[in-house]
Amino acid sequence: VLSKDTRCNIRTIGAGALNQATKAAILAGQHFSAKGKTIKIQVCFESVPSEIEGADSITAILQKLELAEV
Length: 70
Description:
alpha+beta; 3-stranded antiparallel β-sheet
């Protein structure tokens, strides 16, 4: 996705998903560093509506990635 656009959002719910998304961002950073680019990452919390009737919202972690020149 970052090779076509300069920004990408990754929303995760749960520790395992967050771990895999972070690994993916690190590997992407290694890939783009060879091309003279870097990835900036901003992390924040986000409320996502629950699909369970009567349940509260779920807290997700949003990673905002931006491709930039070094």
